[in-house]
Each structure stands twice: as structure tokens, then as C-alpha cells.
Write a structure and sequence with these properties.
By secondary structure, the protein is an alpha/beta fold. The chain is built from 12 helices and 18 strands.
Length: 412
């Protein structure tokens, strides 16, 4: 068998007929070099939102099963069009839906998890000399119903197929040329990284880096599938390689800085300091499917304590209501909600071996008179909740303090 590469093109890359033709030319060129290629496509830019909006114009409570069938159509359109474009320039291609490519999922409509990939048909199609163009983001469940993998799910489709077909790598083509040290709109001298470890990318994706779906990175790490993120718009884009950490290399202490504005804080004051109280609140929130991010509880004062936690902005009203109801039962003194906060985080594999990184972050913020409201850490991340208005300043200051302006030297 030839060497196999799985490529995924996002919504912008297939956003118009012109772009689809460009993508087809790129694929045909690589095919001529003797590579076997499986392409996964997203819906054309904006299409998924448009479909969702149409359903919402009817009702906001459409059944998830029907929503899945509806949304899966966006990816089918782009896969068929790209396949037609490839054929038209003499590059034999065949389009396939999630069912046809054999992507099996569990039954949780709109956020299904992949259970396996049946590769019989795709192997035959490749042996017959075809490029396969797969409609991303979708599979089928045990009942044969169409499921989708959650927003941004085509990335995950691509990695799952790369693993199942034992591709040598998975390439994600998007509208940016890789993963940056910080948002270049906020930090003008942020630069593209040549290489990021799976663990760093996992942290960045969970902190709101939109470039890759979290589950896609999780999958890559689990199966050690090298992933390249690059631009489909810039011909010579080298992109960023996401792979296993290279322990022979000196790791940068901080690789990336993120600011997540989609955070809100709820504070419950004066709750009895006794077993079972925290569990009451957080079980109540979990029962309503609300995920909580950071939590802090103060030292108790006269047998009472305060608890603060964060949720996403979308969830704040629902979460506040639940907490108010529970708060009444246990006679909490006061409950307040604050949407005007953000979470600034530094991520870097080098933190494992460098002490004092958190301290350096805190003093950098204090030098700018930025008050830290909450802190959380992992082995390779430090996050601070601060007032939202200081978020961008904090990112710029940290980028400077951690010397991230100059591109890292990569030893080939
Ligand atoms: N079209 C879907 C979305 O917009 C899936 C994807 O693009 O990966 O979320
Ligand atoms: Mg995406």
C-alpha cells in the first residue's frame, strides 16, 4: 500500500466554489506525488449555523435525532462538491457519508462519541485508486440513525479515520497557519509555534483555543497520531506539528498564553461550614448538566464560609437560579453573580522542571495593578481569574515577561 495521509479542510477552506476548486488542485497535486489521500470536509463556512437557525425558527426544542440529520447535510454538500471538483480535473474521487465510511458512534445525538471505524469499504476505494472525500462531523449509531460529534467535530472524524486507516499523519487545514503563542490580534509579536506537545495542546484547547476540538487532540494523544495544523490559503504554510513531547529537547517554560472571556463567577457567602454543603450545590449544578470550572472555598470564620466558582457566560443565569434555590434551603447569607471576569492562562511543558513560574506570573500581574480573583493550576498550566477589562493587558504583559517574542529555536 502507498503512504496514506488524512487531510481535513475546515469551513472557510471549502467556503466557496472557488475555494473548493483550489483545494481540489492541491489534493490532485499531492495525489500525483503518489500519496493515498482521505479527505474530511466541514460544511461550507456558516452553513451549520444556518441549518441550526432554520430549526430554531420552528422551535427551540427540536429533537436531537432530527437536528443531527439536519446538520449532517452541510458536510454532505461539501464532500460531494469537492469530489465532483476532483473528478473534473482528472483525479478520481468518491464522496462518502459517515455511514459509508463506516464511522460508528454511541447513541448520544449531537455529541456522539466514536466507537469504531469499519474500514472495509474505504480500503477498497483506496485500492481502486480513489481519493475518498468524507463528510466530517457525522457517524451512525447502532440503530443506523445519523449522529453528529459536537461542534467542530470534523477534526475528530479526521483523526479517527487516520488512526483506523493507519495513516502516517493527519493534516488539519484551516484559515490560520498554525498554533500561535498568543492571539496575534492582542499581541502583535505573537508567533507561530513549529511544534506543540499533545499535553500542551490539550490544555490550550480546553482553555478555548478554537483551532482544534478538544476531543480531537485527546484522540491524537491516545493513539500517538501526529497532527499538523496549517493554512489552506497560504501555499507554503508549514504549520504547527502536534506530537509527543520530545524529552531530549529543552522545553520552553511557557509556550502559549490564552484569555478565555467566556467565564462568569458566582459567589455564595455565609454558608454553614459542615460536611455535605459543597456536594449539595455542585450536585445540583451537575444534575442540570452545568459544568463548573474553578472552585474556591474560604477558610471558615465562625463556622461559616464562602464558596466561589466559575461557569461559562451562557450558563450563568441557569446556574445562579439553581444556587439561589439551594441557598435558601441552607440559609446562605448572600449570592452574587459576576459575568465581567476572564481567565488568563499560561501553558508550557517546561513548567514541570522550572519552579517559580506561577510566582513570576503573579508578580507580573501585580506590577500592572491587576488583582487576581481566583487561581488554579495543573502540572503544565497556571490560570488566573481577573477582571475582564484587564484580560488583554495581562496577555501582553505575560507574553513579554516570559520572553515569548522571539521564535524558539527548533533543532531538526
Ligand atoms: N460543521 C460543524 C460545525 O460547524 C463541524 C465542523 O466544522 O467541524 O461545528
Ligand atoms: Mg473547526
Amino acid at each position: 500500500m502507498n503512504r496514506l495521509v488524512v487531510q481535513k479542510y475546515g469551513g472557510t477552506s471549502v467556503g466557496s466554489i472557488e475555494r473548493i476548486k483550489k483545494v481540489a488542485e492541491r489534493i490532485a497535486r499531492m495525489r500525483k506525488e503518489g500519496l493515498d489521500i482521505v479527505v474530511v470536509v466541514s460544511a461550507m463556512a456558516g452553513e451549520t449555523d444556518k441549518l441550526l437557525d432554520m430549526a430554531k425558527q420552528i422551535t427551540s426544542t427540536g429533537k436531537d435525532r432530527e437536528i443531527d440529520l439536519l446538520l449532517s447535510s452541510g458536510e454532505r454538500v461539501s464532500s460531494a462538491l469537492l469530489s465532483i471538483a476532483l473528478d473534473s480535473i482528472g483525479c478520481p474521487a468518491i464522496s462518502m457519508t459517515g455511514r459509508q465510511i463506516g464511522l460508528l458512534t454511541d447513541n448520544s445525538h449531537t455529541k456522539a462519541r466514536i466507537k469504531g471505524v469499519d474500514t472495509d469499504r474505504s480500503r477498497r476505494a483506496l485500492e481502486n485508486g480513489n481519493v475518498i472525500v468524507v463528510a466530517g462531523f457525522q457517524g451512525i449509531n447502532e440503530h443506523g440513525d445519523v449522529t453528529t460529534l459536537g461542534r467542530g467535530g470534523s477534526d475528530t472524524s479526521a483523526v479517527a479515520l487516520a488512526v483506523a486507516l493507519k495513516a502516517e499523519r493527519c493534516e488539519i487545514y484551516t484559515d490560520v497557519d498554525g498554533v500561535y503563542t498568543a492571539d496575534p490580534n492582542i499581541v502583535p509579536d505573537a508567533h507561530k509555534m513549529d511544534r506543540v506537545s499533545y499535553d500542551e495542546m490539550l490544555e490550550m484547547s480546553s482553555l478555548g483555543a478554537k483551532v482544534l476540538q478538544f476531543r480531537c487532540v485527546e484522540f491524537c494523544k491516545k493513539y500517538d497520531m501526529p497532527l499538523v495544523v496549517k493554512s489552506s490559503l497560504v501555499e507554503e504554510s508549514k504549520g504547527t506539528l502536534i506530537c509527543e513531547e520530545d524529552s531530549s529537547m529543552e522545553q520552553p517554560v511557557v509556550s502559549g498564553i490564552m484569555n478565555d472571556k467566556n467565564q462568569a463567577k458566582i459567589t455564595i457567602k455565609g454558608v454553614p461550614d459542615q460536611p455535605g454543603i459543597a456536594s449539595k450545590f455542585f450536585t445540583g449544578l451537575a444534575d442540570e448538566n452545568l459544568s463548573v470550572d474553578m472552585i474556591i472555598q474560604n477558610v471558615s470564620d465562625e463556622n461559616h464560609t464562602d464558596i466561589s466558582f466559575t461557569v461559562t457566560n451562557e450558563d450563568i443565569n441557569k446556574a445562579t437560579k439553581i444556587v439561589q434555590e439551594l441557598g435558601k434551603l441552607i440559609e446562605a447569607r448572600d449570592i452574587s453573580a459576576d459575568p465581567n471576569i476572564c481567565k488568563v492562562s499560561i501553558v508550557g511543558a517546561g513548567m514541570r522542571s522550572h519552579p517559580g513560574v506561577a510566582a513570576k506570573m503573579f508578580s507580573a500581574l501585580s506590577n500592572e495593578n491587576i488583582n487576581i480573583i481566583m487561581i488554579s493550576t495543573s502540572e503544565i498550566r497556571v490560570s488566573c481569574i481577573i477582571e475582564e477589562k484587564y484580560g488583554e493587558l495581562a496577555v501582553r504583559v505575560l507574553h513579554k515577561v516570559f520572553n515569548m517574542t522571539k521564535p524558539k529555536k527548533i533543532v531538526p
